[in-house]
Amino acid sequence: MTQDLTIDLGEQMLNCRTAGIIVKDSHVLLHKNKKDPFWTLIGGRIQLGEDSGQAVEREFEEELGIPVRAERLLCAVENFFTYKGRPYHEYSFIYLIQDVEDRLCGIGEVISPEGGEFHYEWIPLEKIGKLSIKPDFLGEKLVNLPSAPVHLIHKEKISVEAK
What we know:
Elements: E1 6-8, E2 13-21, E3 23-24, E4 27-33, E5 42-45, H1 52-64, E6 68-83, E7 86-99, E8 109-110, E9 118-124, H2 138-143, E10 150-155
Parallel strand pairs: 2-7, 6-10
Antiparallel strand pairs: 1-2, 2-5, 3-4, 4-9, 6-7, 8-9
């Protein structure tokens, strides 16, 4: 049995997450929960006994049905935010991702074999600044990928509420 590295502390949540940035043809692949007003990176919770690189590769396989490789770590983030009225303290590892079989084209909507609650789309890099993306520091990082891993401490100023 696998267990996500998430701890419900009553009024607060402690979360370990991983996510990936995949860029093709000056577009970045993002996803959006159909109930949320914002976009975010594809990823998910790290499981017990799994490293963050393995986790992001597993998440892409689960969500999109494609094999990817975590090419390099871009950011380690201590992220503090409120979602649906609950404060979160999240450790997040963001990787540059490579589509190892070159199965994704860098334009338009991507259909997930999972179906479900998420919408996936290639967003032109020049339009990133016009979107609501969470965490909110991502807009700048997506357009200017760090050349070496960076450590960020991010405190979201506004609560994120879903419908």
